[in-house]
């Protein structure tokens, strides 16, 4: 049996990933380590909370002692590092926690994993690792910066992050790479485009617009709304990570994207149309400072070398996603009111 440590597994992508893995690999044990910040929500995982292959531990990835305890208690084969501060707007208001969690947290995990995975843990120069171990860093296309009207991100491009969020993720990518180059740590880095799907925190574009539409509140659109993002359904992202975990070549970086370039205003208008509301709800607001104009992912490497391809078309994925939010208004209400935090207080296991 493989034991996989997922960090940030109570967040949007992490919770989708944990559920997919338990379903797809019933012989794997999944340990979910999450600090339960404002973005972590155990309600996302309530259908699997009693699965005997699943353990939740409330812990902060910056807490070295706690990470040591976890690695000493379980024979961990892989770390999938989803834990992060993930919202660009928040990184502009309060950059510091982005650096401590996204950079230092990643370095703590690398260090502890290195110590426990080395064949001779006490030998600081030993570069030999146990069989079948891997550190997989879940990163983002935002590390590449912004594109002009043409071109796509490829894995060999220099990193040119423009927001404190993307700069912290780029820094984490660099430190992961450095542990591979310096200490021979077995690693992969994935860089995915914008995700959408169920359980996304309602501060992000798609759930925010759906929620505001339903409540007939203003739909705030930055600048002229012509910023272009490449959208991928969260389940396609999770499937890609699973493939990189099992088939990714040691030390390699893989872009993940679905060739679905859309302007923000197109998405907003699509949601308005689908929900039968009026475009009068749109309110253009002052653009975000340093707002990247366009992202587009070249996914040739992962599609040709690892055989991944997305299952969802954008049209199908967005339709199902809007339906999910319509059928799960309680989930959003609990978040907005903070009720889930109170409900789950103390309802997690510890090591
Ligand atoms: P999210 O904000 O929904 O979830 C982040 C999770 O990390 C939360 O559960 C939170 O409690 C946890 N966390 C935060 N700080 C922590 C800490 N110090 N210790 C332990 N846990 C902590 O984010 P998401 O959208 O699910 O993104 C997950 C990962 O994927 C991030 O690394 C993000 O950079 C990356 N990513 C996201 C997207 C996207 O479109 N959402 C695209 C590409 C890559």
UniProtKB/TrEMBL annotation:
Catalytic activity: dTDP-alpha-D-glucose = dTDP-4-dehydro-6-deoxy-alpha-D-glucose + H2O
Homology family: Belongs to the NAD(P)-dependent epimerase/dehydratase family. dTDP-glucose dehydratase subfamily.
Keyword field: Lyase, NAD
NAD(P)-binding domain residues: 5-321
Enzyme class, broadest EC rank: lyase
Protein EC: 4.2.1.46
Pfam families: GDP_Man_Dehyd
Protein name: dTDP-glucose 4,6-dehydratase
One of the record's GO molecular function terms: dTDP-glucose 4,6-dehydratase activity
Cofactor list: NAD(+)
Example of a GO biological process term: nucleotide-sugar metabolic process
Keyword Lyase tagged: yes
């Amino acid at each position: 049996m493989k034991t996989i440590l997922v960090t940030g597994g109570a967040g949007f992508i992490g919770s989708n990933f944990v559920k997919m893995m338990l379903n797809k690999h019933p012989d794997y044990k999944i340990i979910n380590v999450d600090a339960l910040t404002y973005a972590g929500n155990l309600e996302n995982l309530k259908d699997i909370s009693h699965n005997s292959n699943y353990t939740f531990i409330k812990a902060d990835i910056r807490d070295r002692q706690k990470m040591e305890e976890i690695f000493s208690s379980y024979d961990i084969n892989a770390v999938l590092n989803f834990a992060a501060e993930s919202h660009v707007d928040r990184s502009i208001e309060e950059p510091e926690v982005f650096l401590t969690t996204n950079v230092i947290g990643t370095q703590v995990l690398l260090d502890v994993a290195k110590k426990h995975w080395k064949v001779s843990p006490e030998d600081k120069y030993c570069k030999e690792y146990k069989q079948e171990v891997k550190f997989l860093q879940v990163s983002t296309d935002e590390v590449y910066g912004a594109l002009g009207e043409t071109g796509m991100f490829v894995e060999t491009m220099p990193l040119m992050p423009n927001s404190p969020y993307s700069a912290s993720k780029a820094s984490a990518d660099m430190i992961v790479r450095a542990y591979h180059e310096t200490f021979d740590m077995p690693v992969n880095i994935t860089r995915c485009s914008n995700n959408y799907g169920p359980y996304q925190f309602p501060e992000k574009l798609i759930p925010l617009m759906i929620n505001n539409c339903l409540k007939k509140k203003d739909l705030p659109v930055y600048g002229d709304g012509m910023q272009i993002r490449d959208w991928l359904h969260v389940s396609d992202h999770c499937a890609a990570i699973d493939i990189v975990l099992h088939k990714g070549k040691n030390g390699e970086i893989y872009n993940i994207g679905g060739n679905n370039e859309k302007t923000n205003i197109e998405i907003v208008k699509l949601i308005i149309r689908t929900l039968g509301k009026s475009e009068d709800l749109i309110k253009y607001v002052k653009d975000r400072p340093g707002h990247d104009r366009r992202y587009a992912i070249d996914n040739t490497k992962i599609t040709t070398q690892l055989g991944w391809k997305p299952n969802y078309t954008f049209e199908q994925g967005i339709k199902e996603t809007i339906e999910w939010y319509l059928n799960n208004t309680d989930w959003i209400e609990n978040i907005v009111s903070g009720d889930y935090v109170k409900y789950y207080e103390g309802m997690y296991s510890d090591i």
